[in-house]
Design brief:
This protein is mainly alpha-helical and 366 residues long. It contains 12 helices and 6 strands. The longest helix has 25 residues. The model has no long low-confidence stretch (mean pLDDT 92).
Length: 366
């Protein structure tokens, strides 16, 4: 939407790439099962595979003795998919939800299953391994520079931000779910924070600024709204153009259609199929979002200083490139041959904002 991508774009693509690389390695090490791609050799009864955010928003905070659901949410500082983590085999509740409810009581204990405990051991050890890979691939100077540039903003946040991007709020809006309480974190030590946490906090700060008073979330605007026009784009092309999954595209399309910004109609150039196109309201929204992105960066230059903003972009650019397969990030995205991503094909572009959904927290909404 702008000639120079908004600062949120390289932040997003770096975070997505780190997450996918982390997830591929976790899948390789963990007994697990999937719905569409089978199970690992030792995993037919293992937990259903999920993405890195589910460590941050849930399993990181679940000791063997258990934690109340209320205290878990307080520790994570972001919602989790309680029912999903139970159904997927990571946790149990004591007592179980009563009646038709699928949510644990606030005072119910959340405990890890055996499969959940094994996942904790793998996930907890992976962050150091992944950052070591990035240091080897990009050089320690580049990673130290990136960490310092991220901390120059994350360390000054006035928000009580979680350690990962939150699950986008269910429903057509797909807004980021963030507490408006003042930050009370004790982890004000850049060296103690994983790289994806630094990326997440800065990106989430940007998303909060974008979504404050906006009728569209950054997830919808940066991914789907960005690639549509008033002529129309084939529905089947949208996942490839946005770098997000079919379910993510469908959810984002719901937000645009409900807001009167896009319509779906038969494709006039094909015997079958449909296309999505912007209405005049959608075109105006697209232009307004482009202006909003520029204004946020201008505001950040006032708030944090030109040097801080320029240094962050300069630290990200050599790693991210243009976010397509020519980007240095793609060197780490090759999945293991038996991984589920090896069966669905390599992406042609990384999302312009992570689509972290309740479906398992994957950064592309998979």
């Amino acid at each position: 939407m702008t000639s120079t991508p908004a600062l949120s774009v390289p932040l997003s693509q770096a975070l997505v790439a780190f997450t996918i690389e982390f997830d591929n390695e976790a899948e390789h090490r963990l007994p697990h099962r999937t719905t569409d791609h089978g199970a690992s050799a030792d995993g037919p009864k293992g937990p259903w595979l999920v993405s890195m955010p589910m460590w941050f928003n849930c399993m990181r905070h679940v000791p063997e003795a258990g934690i109340t659901a209320r205290d878990l949410l307080r520790a994570a500082r972001t919602p989790t998919n309680f029912d999903g983590m139970r159904r997927w085999g990571y946790v149990v509740f004591d007592p179980k939800p009563a009646g038709a409810s699928k949510q644990p009581r606030p005072d119910a204990l959340v405990r890890p299953t055996r499969g959940g405990w094994r996942a904790q051991q793998v996930w907890g050890a992976l962050f150091g391994d992944m950052e070591a890979r990035w240091r080897e691939r990009f050089g320690p100077v580049a990673i130290d520079r990136l960490r310092a540039a991220l901390w120059a903003i994350a360390g000054r946040s006035a928000l009580d931000l979680p350690d990962c991007l939150p699950i986008l709020k269910p429903g057509p809006g797909l807004f980021s779910q963030v507490s408006d309480r003042p930050g009370e974190r004790a982890d004000l030590d850049e060296a103690a924070l994983p790289l994806p946490t630094l990326l997440s906090r800065v990106l989430l700060e940007f998303a909060v600024d974008f979504e404050r008073g906006s009728s569209l979330s950054l997830a919808v605007a940066a991914n789907l709204l960005r690639v549509l026009d008033e002529t129309g784009v084939r529905l089947r092309d949208l996942p490839g153009l946005t770098g997000t999954s079919i379910p993510a595209v469908n959810m984002a399309m719901g937000a645009l259609r409900n807001g009167g910004m896009a319509i779906i109609e038969p494709d006039p150039d094909a015997a079958r199929g449909q296309r999505a196109r912007l209405t005049s309201k959608g075109r105006r929204a697209q232009e307004a979002c482009a202006r909003r992105l520029l204004q946020i960066e201008a505001n950040w230059r006032i708030r944090f200083g030109d040097t801080v903003v320029d240094e962050l972009r300069a630290a990200l650019t050599p790693l991210v490139g243009d976010g397509t397969p020519t980007s240095p990030l793609f060197a780490g995205l090759q999945p293991y041959p038996d991984g589920w991503r090896a069966k669905v094909g390599a992406p042609s572009v990384l999302p312009n904002f992570p689509m972290v959904l309740h479906r398992g927290g994957y950064p592309d909404g998979a």
